User: Fold this.
Amino acid sequence: MDIKSRVVNYYKNNQFIQNYLKGIDSNTNEILLEYNGNSKRVSIDVLEAIKSESDLINYINGVSVQSQPVSAPSVPVVNAEIVPEPKEQIMLTESEDLSRETLNDIKILTELKNKEGLNNLIKKIGVNPSTGLLDINEAISKVTRNTMDEVEKAIRSNYEFDTNLVNYDVDGKYVGTPFIGSSSEDEKIMKAFNNVRVYLDASKMYSEQANYNDAQVSAFMKKFVDKVKEELHGSVSVPVNGQAPVVTEVNNKPLEEPAETSASAGFADIFVLTVIVLVYAAIIVNLVIKLK
Assistant:
């Protein structure tokens, strides 16, 4: 069984790994783990020997985890003096909802090329209303809109934009705890686009629906940045926390004009049209290549 298949099996049987698994090094086949700022590279053999979340945390923090023979008695493999008290272990994990699916799951399943797993997650937010079938472009559109909302909230409230993908649901909505940071507005917007990029990367598994090249991703990113800035500093600001909208600039245009009063809905429509154009452009290019 290859490395990715073994990681998928471990992932299915040990749900706690989702909060610590950050990726796989394609050059060394090492699994990348992270906890509280500590990073660790581990072979699949060592990972499979880790049977509990507390053992995983210990390993990332520098305490070795050794596999035991099946017939061996259950004896701690580390000095009892450096093993955290059970109460402390509970405190580390009791607030974690290990059943919650996150953007990090989308990222990991994409890296593992586990399309079945991706299907199960993406169909929860990306279904074509006309056909009832999974639609990656529908998912990208929703995640883009939600990510724009989240970064705009962070900027208006002077919060940092959290880059931990575990703190975002699969639809891009933030479920973490806001915190103050020092990033500039532009930095926050670029961090936010990385959340959208998770789905753009996942779309490569659905090449029959979408196939974004580097130039298209760059164009997408520019449109994302421009639209966020327009909604933040344009004619009408989006209400935050139920407060009244703030009019900053009207550009001598009536506020009832659709292009000015429906920025969010307008973007969603424009985005879908953009996706359709990109998809059909790719199809036409492929046809021309085949005809040649």
User: Anything to note?
Assistant: The CA atoms of residues 143 and 171 lie 5 Å apart. Confidence is low (pLDDT under 50) at residues 67-96, 236-267. The longest helix spans residues 263-291. The chain is about 50% helix and 5% strand.
